[in-house]
Every structure is written in C-alpha cells, then in structure tokens.
Amino acid sequence: MTATAITATGITATAITATGLPVELVKLRKAYGATVAVDGIDLRIAAGSYCCLLGPSGCGKTSTLRMIAGHEDISDGDLLIGDSVMNGEPPAKRGTAMMFQSYALFPHLDCTDNVAFSLKMKGVPKEERRRRAGEMLELVDMGKYAARLPAQLSGGQQQRVALARALITRPGVLLLDEPLSALDPFLRVRMREELKRLHRELGITFVHVTHSQTEAMALADLAVVMNQGRIEQAGPPRELFNRPRTAFVARFIGGHNVIAGAGGQDAVRADRIRLGDGSADVSVEGTVRMLEYHGSSVHLSLDVPGADDFAVILDEARFFDSPLSIGDRVLAGWSRRDTHPLVA
C-alpha cells in the first residue's frame, strides 16, 4: 500500500509502499544450553495488527522477537512470515525491519545518511536513496533536522530517526525492542501517539516488546503476556484486563486483587472495591498501609489477612468525602458479580 502523511510543515510525502504480513509461531523454542528461554510457544499475529509481547525480565519476549528478526537461531519449531517458513533465512530475506532499544545511529552521519544507509548497502543510487530518506524523515516529522548529527538531537528525535531508518526498507513487519524505555514520561506518551499514527497510516504489522503494561494497553490490538518462556494469555488488551486467565496475568497487568475463591482463586478489580459498605456481597477488614494521590484517583494498599498487596482505587472526590490515614482500620467490600475465576 502507499501511505501519505501531512507533516507539521505542510508537506505531503509519499511515504512507503508495503503490505503487512502475518507472523505465525509454531511450537517455537529457544534454548541456550540447558536454559530454555522460549518453551514451545504457539502464536498467530494477523497481518497489519499491532502486537505487544510483554512480561517481566527473563520471560522470553526478547528472545522471541530476535528469532522473528533472524538474530537468534531457532532451537525447535517453525516461524512463518507471510506464507513462508523462515527458519534459517537471513534477516534481509524475511520482509522485516528491526528498531533496536539503543537506536544505534552512526554518530558521524547526518540524519539523511543514517536513514539512507541500508539503501546504500543495497547499491541504490545516491539521489534516489536520499530522496527516499527525506520522505521517511518527513513521515516522522524530522525533515527539518535532516542535516543534523545524532549528537545534536534529543533522545526522542534520535528515536524518530531510528524509526525512519527501519521503515525505509519497506518492511511487511516492523519489530520494536523496548523502543520507549529510554524516554522520559512525557516523550513516552508522545511517541506512543506517533507509533499508533504510523501503524494506522502504513498498515504494516508491528511486533513490539515491552515490560510496560501501560504501553501494551495503549498500543496493542493483540497483547501477549509471557512468563518463564511460555505464553500465559494472548488477546485484546481489554480482554486481558477484564478477564485475566491466571493469577500471574491478573497481578502482572495490575489493577486486580487475587483472592481465595470457592473453587480456587478469583480476581476482583481494585476500582470495584468499596470502602465502609457493610451491605456488600463480600467484605474483608484491613488496615491502610499506603496512600498515593494520583490526581483523578487515590490508590490505597491494605493489609488484609490471606491477601498479598490488597489494592483499592477510589475516585478522588469519593476518597476526600471520607478521607483515611495510614493505620486506619477499614471495611472493604465488593459485589460477587465483579469477581472473575482464575484457572491457576
């Protein structure tokens, strides 16, 4: 497809010609000696979707991304991109491009030459590669910085250049390895918006590794929670948040309490807890251990027998109608219909 972008300068640039490719992992496994990093996972990522792989450090998400990219050998199983099995194929033949966490820009090259570098390696004539590099820089709103060196750019600007460099190869799949982790919170939100815009305009498949639940919720069509080399749950972010499959997913996604249920364990969202309501279907008594003011809401942690890190999220106005202090005893209650049974 051909996408056009109206940049802040008012220039319309023919940006890229690419079609999103589906990615499928079939019993994919990666072992480093006796250590299994990815343990036979199955996953299908639809063409043109935005997939986030998330989980704690060491869960296997980066090894999975690197196998898709061709930077790690596959120990067992199959990787399909489009309709082709890509096991053993070099990165350049996979229809993918990767944006690394470190950006890895050449310090002695200006923005245009950094973006155009891969085309130079392919023998594309100078005039054409610089024209295409200019289009990519316009697409990420960096055209006015085309002649600057990386040291003359902010972290967010360097990231945009790295993104343009990845996109210039017209990939069917863009792979992103924790691309926002080095940015301050304000820039992180801005770049999330940029990634969503580019995904929408270009129509290519994005596979994005992150340890941030907030990032995955904001960006993904498909969120994949990994733990100890396996997929705990995959689905739309809203499904994972409202119907976590396991206690691990409920705790990792956040905003849930894991409690003992009739058949095992249940989850109840922290924002569904009511304080001081003796008429609730289920109630427990606890002691306020922590209070945090978040502007529109107040977050509390309670010491509750039999529950770890029992959390409550209250609307700011409701909290300050009857404010609490650390050490106060309080009754916490919720409706049975707000509980969700967990598999494990």
Describe this entry's structure for a reader.
- With 344 residues, this protein is α+β, with helices and mostly antiparallel strands.
- The chain folds into two domains: 2-239, P-loop containing nucleotide triphosphate hydrolases (Rossmann fold), CATH 3.40.50; 255-341, OB fold (Dihydrolipoamide Acetyltransferase, E2P) (Beta Barrel).
- The protein has helices spanning 61-69, 111-121, 126-139, 155-167, 185-202, 213-219, 237-242, 247-253, 316-321; strands at 2-6, 12-17, 23-32, 35-45, 50-54, 76-81, 84-85, 96-99, 173-177, 205-210, 222-227, 230-235, 256-261, 264-269, 274-275, 282-293, 297-304, 307-315, 329-334, 339-341.
- The strands form five sheets. A six-stranded mixed sheet has the order 8-9-10-5-11-12, sandwiched between helices.
- A hairpin with a 5-residue loop joins strand 1 (2-6) and strand 2 (12-17).
- Helix 2 (111-121) packs across helix 3 (126-139), helix 2 runs parallel beside helix 4 (155-167) and helix 3 (126-139) packs across helix 4 (155-167).
- The longest helix is centred in the middle third of the chain and has 18 residues, at 185-202.
- It is globular and about 75 Å long.
